[in-house]
Amino acid sequence: MNARDVVKQADEADLRLVRFLWCGNDGTVRAKSSARHGLEGRLEAGIGLTVAMQAMNALDQLQPIADLGPVGEIRLVPDLETFRVLPYAPRTGAVLTDHVQLDGAAAPVCQRSFLKRMEARLAERGLVLRASFENEFSLATQVDGAYVPIDSALCFSTIATTAAQDYVDELAAALEAQRIPLEQYYAELGHGQQEISTGHAPALQAADEQLLVRETIRGVAACHGLVASLAPKPWPENAGNGGHVHFSLWDGDRNRFFDGSRPDGLSAEARSFIAGVLDHLPGLCGLAAPSFNSYHRIVPHYWAGAFVCWGYDNREAPVRVASVFRGAEEASTNAELKACDASCNPYLALGGLLAAGLDGIERGLEPPEPVDVDPATIAEDERARRGIVRLPSTQAEALDALAADDLLSGSLGPILRDAYLAVRRSEWAAYSAGDAAFEQQGHFAKY
Ligand code: GLU
Ligand code: MG
């Protein structure tokens, strides 16, 4: 698809504006839009943006980071294949973009380019990481400035399903119109909590779609006078919102996670990939569950996975191997990373997951013994013996673990690593000095 094809599609849909979307180090989605006039040129050459946006945290506080200050520009250059007409915004389309330097090279801070680099490393082995995000989110109304969940019904309750049905119908239609395959929907455990899962796709496409899905969840809610929040812990006393990632490795139409000759159906490559993910899990948390609010979700007994371990169908394990479906064994073999939420930059989360798993393959790692109980119920000394350590319990700990993880930090490269850590650590400084209301205000309507 070239710029002229996109303009033609934009004209057919009678668009006035096209949003050039990106996700920053703070995990928020931001945009600058092109009008119809000049659209073709901007689709080709990009839209100008200050380099400083990659130093901005989720409170719009600019961090003092070398070369990311008031002087200097990058271009937001779209990937034209990502063009969509947005069903929830009047006469508006969207594209996902890379951060590109004026000389045409990918900016070293570009998270989307980081994921492409990681995919290229995997491609050298003839492998593709396919992933899908399972987004949990909360639907609320605002009453006197407070967020109030739209229902107080039970888990999977049809009463909650009914309460959200008009919204969900429009959400499903909006996803379909954007060619994003919706797989399942249900009302989840928490009050006002919903969950949707979408089809798996190669990592870059999965990350692009994750941003479009987040936009759609919120955009459709706004059309209904509702607020949808993907914040990891929207209310301190309510269930957390996970953004679990299902993943597997493919070689053409062969699922390389699957080996029918093994009792558990998992290939040696899958085991090593999982072992790599476990080996780097504390640091990976710094990328995949990266907000202050994330660590009010990752606590024992909330099915978010709080200890480094894996297990078959174990929902207290941060890496869960999901049971396959009879008759579709190969197609349905996958693992799930639960230590992920929608406040992450999905390019960083998937790039980090890929780097960790690839490291496991390169080192031929074997995973430890799987855990078949809630790890919090295992005696402390036995947990220590089996290496079932607690995941980071704060944002600061997760970022320290990321900084200490040479493989993950090295994969990011020094410029992206330093900018990312500075931005996220500044959020820790702000929210750890504030109260629960400040935390909620800072996450509920930003993710
Ligand atoms: N809400 C849980 C979380 O925070 C997940 C519940 C489940 O779907 O297993 O990840
Ligand atoms: Mg769920």
Describe the overall structure.
This protein is α+β, with helices and mostly antiparallel strands. It folds into 2 domains: 3-108, Roll (Ubiquitin-like (UB roll)); 118-446, Glutamine synthetase/guanido kinase, catalytic domain (Creatine Kinase, Chain A, domain 2), CATH 3.30.590.10. Helix content is 36%, strand content 22%. The chain contains 15 helices and 16 strands. The chain has helices spanning 3-12, 39-45, 111-123, 158-163, 165-177, 203-223, 268-279, 281-288, 329-332, 346-362, 380-385, 395-404, 406-412, 414-432, 436-443; strands at 17-23, 29-35, 47-50, 73-85, 92-100, 128-143, 146-149, 182-187, 193-198, 201-202, 227-229, 243-251, 254-255, 310-312, 319-321, 335-337. The strands form 2 sheets. Strands 6, 7, 8, 9, 10, 11, 12, 13, 14, 15 and 16 form an 11-stranded mixed β-sheet that branches. A 5-stranded mixed β-sheet has the order 2-1-5-4-3. A hairpin with a 6-residue loop joins strand 4 (73-85) and strand 5 (92-100). The chain is globular and about 65 Å long. The two termini are 31 Å apart. The mean pLDDT is 97. The site of magnesium ion (MG) has 3 residues, from loops.
